[in-house]
């Protein structure tokens, strides 16, 4: 019998599914990659060629404070979000699925509500004569209004509230994959609830915490609306500073350099997380 | 009277309107291998979970050496358990899994190391110490689970269908391991299974569960040779039930009339029956012989089919009244020329036949 064994000459082939990616890819190149490159170009050419914009940003104490404050807010928001989201995610993971979908609905619904509306709502609640302060004073718990707005507290409250779904959703996925029987086994082995949490549940849920945490941290780094409305002048964040440089001071070079630094830091963090999580997967752990 | 080691007293558990365990009372001496056997939903796992502390009983008590366990949370009960599903901690190595119960008890590191080595030797997995559970087969994982459950020398080991996820060959192998470990450690084992062969093979004693109650407790032989109820007779081993009319009972042996009209005396009566009461006669398939002996009773059957199963033959037969009979003589007792379909007499010892209410 004769079998045709002619091999087609090696040709370069696009990976399967590439064609479907094309529209999105074009969009991203046109409206993200090109502007970013333009930004980079401006940051090293305006007002004159050179790295003086970067030198100014990294050398100046005022700008350094803004950078520091940005990372501080993002870190605090991320930590508080993890702390608040974990119990919620755990309840969602173990609760009956009918009930869980209702709670999920509530969480998703909050994401669909306009961001500005939600932030203004917090202003109403948090200000000196706001609902919270009045209630606490009427109840006799405090006699001076608490400083809840125009400071780190206000920014943290407002941003945690907005970031929660981004933390809860990946975490529920990870927690649902953990067999509750494993925790019963830990209990019978003699582990107190706290030991079972620290030695079993927490390590097993770490990939979800890392994924959600990174997302929240990165989003917080570049957040604009909530810090602008709930924060004070003394703790300005990077996004606000960039807006000010470009809109008010018309200093495109400095603004571009700041934006570019933010982008690089974000990407570095993402790469770091990929490495850490990837390395754990390679070793066979979860 | 000496105090029992573990005692379960009038245990009852309800889930809403559903009664999972009606009323279970059991006393278990130290070092015993007791199996809870029964169909699914018979309450055996619920009883085990009450001992483990995963489910609070609705009423009743569980006592270890005279002290109630009910107020003690799971993690302070000091009970070992192997679960149906694989419950090893996936992020810890085999050695770390076995060390876990010792680490949470803050035992000194030298002791932990030694105990882990001993336990892995006990389940013969020394060379797997640094592997993660995901890299082990199901049987190996259950052996690690066994090592983990025994690492802290618990007085009681609970096993909830630990072999049900394994294939038959592996199951038999690990059954052998479990018997050996029971012998070597002397730990008291409560074992849950729905597999009667597993129960017969492993246990000192079997508690047969049905609908949240214990139908009979006894050795495998007791349950097989002296079933207390028709449910036990039907659940353990194979059995034939023939409709019978009770004629008379004296000294625990009864005379009955079968549906084909034949009268048989000397069968064992399980209960008291009125004259003329409808009853059922239970005969094991392997209790039938092909040859008459002085004490034997006879049964006229029509042989429908004969199949060869190695050491035994399996005969599908029918009585004159149309009742199906399963007969399993040894192959040696029934030479191959006898195997063609025909009508003939088969024989059984009436003392190995049991009368139950219809």
TrEMBL record, chain A:
Topology versus the membrane: Multi-pass membrane protein
Pfam family, one: BPD_transp_1
UniProt keyword Transmembrane helix, yes or no: yes
Coiled-coil features, chain-numbered ranges: none
Keyword tags: Cell membrane, Membrane, Transmembrane, Transmembrane helix, Transport
Domain ABC transmembrane type-1 residues, every copy: 67-273
Annotated compartments: Cell membrane
TM regions (residue ranges): 20-41, 62-86, 92-113, 154-175, 204-229, 249-272
InterPro entries, per database record: MetI-like, MetI-like_sf
Family that this chain belongs to: Belongs to the binding-protein-dependent transport system permease family. CysTW subfamily.
Record's protein name: Spermidine/putrescine transport system permease protein
Organism the protein comes from: Mesorhizobium robiniae
Taxonomic placement: Bacteria, Pseudomonadati, Pseudomonadota, Alphaproteobacteria, Hyphomicrobiales
């Amino acid at each position: 019998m004769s079998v045709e064994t002619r091999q087609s000459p090696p040709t370069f082939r696009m990976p399967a599914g590439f064609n479907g990616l094309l529209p999105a890819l074009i969009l991203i190149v046109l409206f993200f990659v090109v502007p970013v490159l333009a930004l980079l170009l401006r940051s090293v050419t305006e007002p004159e060629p050179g790295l003086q914009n970067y030198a100014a940003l990294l050398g100046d104490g005022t700008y350094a404070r803004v950078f520091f404050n940005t990372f501080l807010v993002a870190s605090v928001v991320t930590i508080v979000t993890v702390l608040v989201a974990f119990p919620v995610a755990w309840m969602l993971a173990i609760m009956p699925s009918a009930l869980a979908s209702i709670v999920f609905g509530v969480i998703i619904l909050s994401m669909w509500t306009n961001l500005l509306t939600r932030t203004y709502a917090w202003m109403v609640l948090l200000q000196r004569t706001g609902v919270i302060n009045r209630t606490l004073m009427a109840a006799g718990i405090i006699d001076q209004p608490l400083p809840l707005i125009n400071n780190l507290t206000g920014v943290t409250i407002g941003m945690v509230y907005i970031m929660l779904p981004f933390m809860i959703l990946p975490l529920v996925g990870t927690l649902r994959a953990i067999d509750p029987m494993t925790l019963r086994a830990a209990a019978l082995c003699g582990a107190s609830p706290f030991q079972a949490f620290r030695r079993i549940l927490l390590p097993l849920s770490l990939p979800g915490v890392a994924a959600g945490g990174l997302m929240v941290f990165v989003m917080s780094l570049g957040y604009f609306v909530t810090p602008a409305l709930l924060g004070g002048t003394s703790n300005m964040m990077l996004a606000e500073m960039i807006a000010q440089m470009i809109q008010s001071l018309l200093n495109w070079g400095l603004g571009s350099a700041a934006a570019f630094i933010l982008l690089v830091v974000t990407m570095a963090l993402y790469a770091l997380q990929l490495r850490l999580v990837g390395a754990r997967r390679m070793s066979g752990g979860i | 009277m000496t105090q029992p080691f573990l005692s379960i007293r009038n245990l009852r558990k309800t889930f809403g309107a559903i009664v999972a365990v009606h009323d279970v009372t059991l006393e278990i001496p130290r070092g015993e291998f007791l199996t809870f056997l029964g169909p699914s939903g018979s309450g055996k796992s619920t009883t085990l979970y009450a001992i483990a502390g995963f489910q609070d009983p609705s009423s009743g008590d569980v006592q270890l050496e005279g002290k109630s366990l009910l107020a003690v949370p799971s993690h302070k009960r000091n009970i070992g358990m192997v679960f149906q599903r694989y419950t090893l901690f996936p992020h810890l190595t085999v050695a770390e899994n076995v060390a876990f119960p010792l680490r949470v008890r803050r035992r000194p590191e030298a002791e932990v190391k030694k105990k882990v080595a001993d336990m892995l030797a006990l389940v013969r997995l020394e060379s797997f110490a640094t592997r993660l559970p995901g890299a082990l087969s199901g049987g190996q994982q259950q052996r690690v689970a066994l090592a983990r459950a025994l690492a802290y020398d618990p007085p009681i080991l609970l096993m909830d269908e630990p072999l049900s996820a394994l294939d038959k060959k592996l199951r038999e192998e690990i059954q052998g391991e479990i018997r050996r470990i029971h012998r070597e450690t002397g730990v008291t084992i409560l074992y849950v299974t729905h597999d009667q062969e597993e129960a017969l093979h492993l246990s000192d004693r079997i508690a047969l569960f049905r609908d949240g109650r214990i139908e009979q407790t006894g050795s495998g032989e007791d349950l097989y040779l002296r079933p207390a109820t028709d449910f036990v007779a039907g659940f353990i081993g194979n059995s034939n039930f023939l409709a019978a009319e009770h004629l008379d009972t004296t000294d625990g042996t009864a005379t009955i009339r079968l549906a084909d009209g034949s009268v048989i005396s000397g069968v064992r009566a399980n209960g008291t029956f009125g004259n003329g009461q409808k009853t059922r006669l239970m005969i094991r398939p392997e209790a039938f012989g092909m040859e008459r002996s002085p004490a034997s009773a006879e049964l006229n059957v029509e042989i429908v089919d004969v199949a060869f199963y190695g050491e035994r033959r399996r005969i599908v037969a029918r009585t004159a009244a149309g009742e199906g009979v399963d007969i399993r003589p040894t192959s040696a007792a029934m030479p191959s020329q006898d195997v063609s379909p025909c009508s003939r007499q088969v024989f059984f010892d009436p003392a190995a036949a049991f009368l139950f209410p219809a």
